[in-house]
Amino acid sequence: MAFARLMLSSTSRTLRQICGRSQIKHSSAIYVGCPQQLFYSTATDQPYMPKENDVVKPFSEMPGRGSDSLTGRLSYALQGWRRRNTVKKPWDTYSEWSEKYGSVYKRAFGKTAMVYITDPEDIAVVCRNEGKYPTRFGGGLDITHAWKVYKRQRNMPYGLLTANGEKWFRVRTAFNKKMMRPIEVPRYGEVVNDVVTDFEKKLRRVRQADDVVPDFQMLMYTWAVESISAILFTKRLHLLGETQSEEANNFINGILAVFDTSVLLFKFPASLQSALGTRPWRKHVKGWDAIFDYGMKRVNEKMTELELLEEKGELPSPESMDIIQHLLLRTDLSPDMIYSHMSEVLLGAVDTTANAFQWAVYNLANNPETQEKLHEEVRRVVPKGEMVSYKHIEKLPYVTAVIKETLRVNPVVVNNSRVLDEDITIKGYNIPAGTPIVMLFHQSGRNSKYFEDPDKFMPERWLTRRSDKLSAFTSMPFGFGPRMCIGKRFAMFELQVLLARISQDFILENTTAVEPKMSFLMLPDRPLNPKFIDR
Fold first, then answer.
1. What is the CATH number for 34?
2. Residue range 491-497: average pLDDT?
């Protein structure tokens, strides 16, 4: 096959030299007003070392409920029922536990004891000790467990969100080359703006006479799918036109199905539901199939494109390659690996950005003064008639601050887990290697030690350098270190451009009061139905 010859060509050998491992480096200081540094961590590469006079207490003395009791073991079979409220609004349950036990505590789930931490200083300790291959907790208490069951049944490798260890690292470094370097983002400015232009046209078409935009969530999902497809595959799918293809609808519904059923399959083990063929499991599989088929089709189109370019002798240079071309021209990644990893990238890129913007709209509509400050900044920086480019973004700190504050108040991802290879000490307690540690971002982002009036939406708090008080570990919407969100830079750019453009053209008003709910991610508990009023 022509593509097989392509992979062995001298061009490919040159690419292997260029596409080697890349390192993620972290800033040693926090510059919260600078978009390029806003979500970087202040962590050093130094591992945690206990002080000489530290008194380290054993893990058994940590407050909370341990895993050694017979009751704890027998209760595991009923955990799905007992976790129903925890899953629905976990932050309320976590707050109750924090009030009872403090900022670090353990909870038993059958034979497994998990440590929960809320203090940004303790989160920093965990992050600084996560090692070269940061590991997320697996097993039945892993909310992505159903994803892994699906991948195993389909004989597919785990992807960027589910894999651990050296296999994960090898693929991650391949993605880093094109997705984590700031230099790659500006080249997508025109297409990101084109998508926003079509989004606004669609919004105006569906907007009702009273300026209410119905089914706003689906509109946001469509924008997110169009945006990430344009970036990953350098191809417009035109999902925001008058009509939407069946393929696009299947893909979007597949994403919604996977997230909805992941919670159900977490409460009642996915492996058991898979064996029984329950309705949630069948829906989960159908959703994943739609995502996988969509991603595979787009990758195959790129593969065919590369074959034609090779035949013409017009292969792109390493610098001008897009993301998929870069991955396909690596001889250490099989097509199955690319399909699997791309399916998880698509899943992670759509739901998170779509819901982050929903929360931004809701918060701005509830804070008219903030909305006007945002409009005034964009009006001052972006001349009328110009698109919002990457060069403008660095001059729009308030735009970035609004996104940062949105993700602090309404973190789409409310927690993350790590399993460390070595013992560490937190709040004077020894935590043995191999213990699952859950970092609670919802609580750390509302810590009154770092945030005055923490429940208030106030983007101004991110506009000054306050490294003595505002820890980089208080709010980590994109994670940290080698395992930070692979799409962080593109997600931020998409949100910045969309937010700036919307502020130019519309005044936002809410028609519905919503509360956050947990459906794998933090979502509004009912449709927003916001008003978009022409300026």
1. 3.30.43.20
2. 96
